[in-house]
């Protein structure tokens, strides 16, 4: 079967159907910086986001302790330590 025209190819999920997760801990200034970027980008795009405290979840602690803050997009690691707003926006609109 021939490739379908680009007009008929399925695009990725709409931004409002995505989910951004910030994994951090209280008192973490990098986590606060990451949250500010996430709030702005997700707010602009209408993307839901959530915040998880690494100190309250042993699995998250084991997986990400040395990388916080960690940002997940749809459950997959997007970045850690610093969040680039343009890169996050691009990931959410691809």
From TrEMBL:
<dbReference type="Pfam" id="PF05768">
    <property type="entry name" value="Glrx-like"/>
</dbReference>
<dbReference type="InterPro" id="IPR008554">
    <property type="entry name" value="Glutaredoxin-like"/>
</dbReference>
<dbReference type="InterPro" id="IPR036249">
    <property type="entry name" value="Thioredoxin-like_sf"/>
</dbReference>
<dbReference type="InterPro" id="IPR052565">
    <property type="entry name" value="Glutaredoxin-like_YDR286C"/>
</dbReference>
<protein>
    <submittedName>
        <fullName>Thioredoxin family protein</fullName>
    </submittedName>
</protein>
């Amino acid at each position: 079967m021939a490739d379908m025209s680009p007009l008929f190819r399925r695009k990725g999920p709409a931004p409002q159907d995505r989910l951004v997760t910030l994994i951090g801990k209280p008192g973490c200034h990098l986590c606060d910086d990451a949250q500010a970027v996430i709030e702005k980008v997700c707010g602009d795009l209408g993307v839901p986001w959530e915040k998880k405290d690494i100190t309250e979840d042993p699995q998250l602690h084991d997986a990400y302790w040395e990388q916080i803050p960690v940002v997940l997009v749809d459950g997959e690691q997007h970045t850690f330590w610093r969040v680039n707003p343009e890169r996050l926006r691009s990931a959410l609109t691809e």
